């Protein structure tokens, strides 16, 4: 991927425009009964407890459709559990938006637009946006180790190869670096999706018949989005510089945290408008958050191992062994989904606190 255009080597990573067919129904209200007025009120009320099939994972049908599509695409068990958590967060935010809208808030539509952008990020992250994916499907093999090609960025692959062959990293440190490289890739991907969405929004405004009608709150929202993207780009550049140093020098003993998301939060918190006491309290909370992430990572690995074993037993084992392995896999799958949601919800809460503290500086 030859870096060019917008920002330090990131414009070249831009994905094609996302399918717009998914956008119109994004925030539209769903009918209370699936069959409209065909049935009587009594009939509908009697059927209410079983409106959704037991297999339904979400209260919003559009999210169920994405979930079923992901399962058809045979995403890995870990990716499915991560997608499940992301969709749960998305559903929570959309219901909150509907409540605000019913109260007459979000008049400029910025929260609605933010929800559209967040769903687009999910679609791109899990390859649900209709783009052809040249990558091979996940092998679900832990013993083979991660493949550099899945980083999708020659610069990151070069760093990974440098670290693997340097002899400066233990196995645990290589695992830690791999997580950091993946996290960096996801930040670049999210930046590209948001930049593409902003470009489309600006194009729509430029083609508007009455540009004067687009001024005021909408212009302010655009400025805010530009500032957010500029800040993201700066953090991405700083993150890459840090990864480059680590891949060449190895990890030092002075590191405060190990998990990439926690490292990002700590860096942001130190530049926010926190008092010394508040910053120390935040640091302690980040330690607890890191433990929660480590627990989630443990269950993800157990889920992958259970998936491999289940596939093997289904091929060669008897009915009793298959049944026991299916039960264990189902338990691990549910626990991983639960922990994934808790981690993402906690991350959202911590990010919100930092954002509010930074805004208080203005």
Write up this protein.
The protein is 65% helix and 0% strand. The protein has 362 residues and is mostly helical. Helix 6 packs antiparallel against helix 7 and helix 8 runs parallel beside helix 10 (319-359). The radius of gyration is 23 Å and the shape is globular. It comes from Pipistrellus nathusii (Nathusius' pipistrelle). InterPro entries: A2-macroglobuin_RAP, Alpha_2_MRAP_C, MG_RAP_rcpt_1, RAP_D2, RAP_D3, RAP_sf.
Can you give me a brief rundown of this structure?
The chain has helices spanning 41-47, 61-72, 77-102, 110-125, 154-166, 171-206, 217-249, 260-270, 276-316, 319-359. With 362 residues, it is an all-alpha fold. This is Alpha-2-macroglobulin receptor-associated protein.
Strand content: under 5%
What is the average of the pLDDT values?
Answer: 80
Tell the overall outline. Answer: globular
The radius of gyration is 23 Å
Tally of contiguous helical segments: 10
- In helices, the fraction of residues equals 55-70%
Backbone structural class: mainly alpha
Q: What is the terminal-to-terminal distance?
A: 38 Å
**How many E strands?**
0
Signal peptide: 1-34
InterPro entries: A2-macroglobuin_RAP, Alpha_2_MRAP_C, MG_RAP_rcpt_1, RAP_D2, RAP_D3, RAP_sf
Domain Alpha-2-macroglobulin receptor-associated protein: 27-133
Pfam families: Alpha-2-MRAP_C, Alpha-2-MRAP_N
């Amino acid at each position: 991927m030859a870096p060019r255009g917008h920002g330090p080597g990131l414009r070249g990573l831009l994905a094609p425009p996302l399918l717009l067919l998914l956008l119109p129904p994004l925030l539209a209200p769903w009918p209370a009964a699936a069959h409209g007025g065909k049935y009587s009120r009594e009939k509908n009320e009697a059927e209410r407890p079983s409106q959704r099939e037991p297999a339904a994972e979400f209260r919003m049908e559009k999210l169920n459709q994405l979930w079923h599509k992901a399962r058809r695409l045979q995403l890995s068990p870990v990716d499915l559990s991560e997608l499940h958590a992301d969709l749960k967060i998305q559903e929570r935010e959309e219901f909150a938006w509907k409540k605000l809208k019913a109260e007459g808030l979000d008049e400029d539509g910025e929260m609605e637009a933010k929800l559209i952008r967040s769903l687009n990020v999910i679609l791109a992250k899990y390859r649900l946006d209709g783009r052809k994916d040249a990558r091979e499907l996940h092998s679900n093999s832990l013993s083979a180790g991660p493949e550099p090609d899945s980083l999708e960025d020659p610069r990151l692959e070069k760093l990974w190869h440098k670290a693997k062959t340097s002899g400066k990293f233990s196995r645990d440190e290589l695992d830690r670096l791999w997580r950091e490289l993946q996290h960096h890739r996801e930040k670049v991907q999210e930046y590209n999706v948001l930049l593409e969405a902003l470009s489309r929004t600006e194009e729509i405004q430029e083609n508007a018949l009455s540009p004067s009608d687009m001024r005021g709150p909408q212009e302010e929202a655009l400025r805010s989005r530009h500032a957010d993207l500029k800040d993201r780009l700066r953090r991405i550049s700083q993150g890459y510089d840090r990864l480059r140093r680590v891949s060449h020098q190895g990890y030092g003993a002075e590191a405060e945290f190990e998990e990439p998301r926690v490292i990002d939060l700590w860096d942001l918190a130190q530049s926010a408008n926190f008092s010394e006491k508040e910053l120390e309290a935040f640091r302690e909370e980040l330690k607890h958050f890191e433990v929660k992430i480590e627990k989630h990572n443990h269950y993800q690995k157990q889920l992958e191992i259970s998936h491999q074993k289940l596939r093997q037993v289904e091929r060669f084992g008897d009915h009793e062994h298959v049944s026991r392995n299916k039960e264990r896999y189902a338990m691990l799958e549910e626990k991983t989904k639960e922990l994934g949601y808790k981690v993402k919800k906690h991350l959202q809460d911590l990010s919100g606190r930092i954002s509010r503290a930074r805004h208080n500086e203005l």
